[in-house]
Amino acid sequence: MSEICRIKSFDHLEFYVGNAKQAAHFYSQGFGFTNTAYRGLETGERKTASYLMEQGQIRLVLSTGLSGDDQICQSAIAHGDAIAVIALEVPDAVRAYRETTKRGARGAIPPTEEEDEQGVFRYAAIHAYGEVLIKFVERSNYKGVFAPGFVPRKSATGKGVGLTRIDHVVGNVELGTMEKWVQFFAETMGFELLVHFDDQTIATEYSALMSKVMQDGKGSIKLPINEPAQGKGKSQIQEYLDYNGGAGIQHVAFATNDIIQTVSQLRNSGVEFLAVPPTYYENIDKRVGKIDERIEKLAELGILVDRDSEGYLLQIFTQPVEDRPTLFFEVIQRCGSQGFGEGNFKALFEAIEREQVRRGNL
After folding, report:
1. The sheet that has 311-317: what strands, in order across it?
2. 251 is in an annotated binding site
3. CATH of 9-152, one of 3.40.50.1220, 3.20.20.70, 3.40.50.1000, 3.10.180.10
4. How confident is the model at residue 1 (pLDDT cuts 50, 70, 90)?
């Protein structure tokens, strides 16, 4: 494990949104998250409102600015609702900030300490691609519901859909800059290259991309990075960059232990997924071998399957959850495999391209 920046786990992802109250309702009703804590005008916070949404080990913070000149409001205008902060829990936020900035990271929030009756909460942040921040959070001396200023939502209820943890967070960067960001995570945070996909591996007749997966020393934090490649049409990555106004987080993969149950509940809640043609499931048993799930049920729900030397995985991708074709989510169940569904890249790309045609953007 790298000693540059020791990381315990994903702490939370913070979204900058135009209306956090409505976003909280969407993630509660659509994805089964529970609003467990809140910070806003009623708690004494005058600049922003934030809703903590939880499910399994996943924490999402939905934040909005309370005045037009607030930085969060400006971000929402520029990028639409988007994930602005990847927060990582570390044993020592000061050390993480010092070591990463010493190695070339650009500081965003210097080490900061907040205290209330529940203890001391420490954090700091550095800049990553686009306007995304990597935030270091130290919780060892804090026992509150989330952070100072947040109060619990006593009436909080959430149905849950079986999402357990954040599996990986994928960023899209501009053409020619992927290697820069690979080096950034390697040199400033001690991450390692797990796997590399080139534009021959991830390509269709119309578009292509290149991707490198960076992970921390323990393998618990995986941050794939994509950049567009030349093709006959506009790459899905370039479409994202155009509508996001630059680099940013394309999608988050949430893990589940029962993808059939999870996806069934999500569909019943109105979550829309990319369509998979029935031909994908023809002879799938010969392609991926024996699996525990019924192929007919996977086909009914549109769940993809892939196998590698360690086992297999099941995955599915939502439609974009914004009006802009930017942020979407993946649901993944790992049955031994630690890959990323390489065997599904062509089917996934073709599904996305069908949506690009509908939007007039291919």
Report:
1. 192-197, 208-215, 222-229, 163-172, 248-256, 328-335, 311-317, 304-308
2. yes
3. 3.10.180.10
4. very low
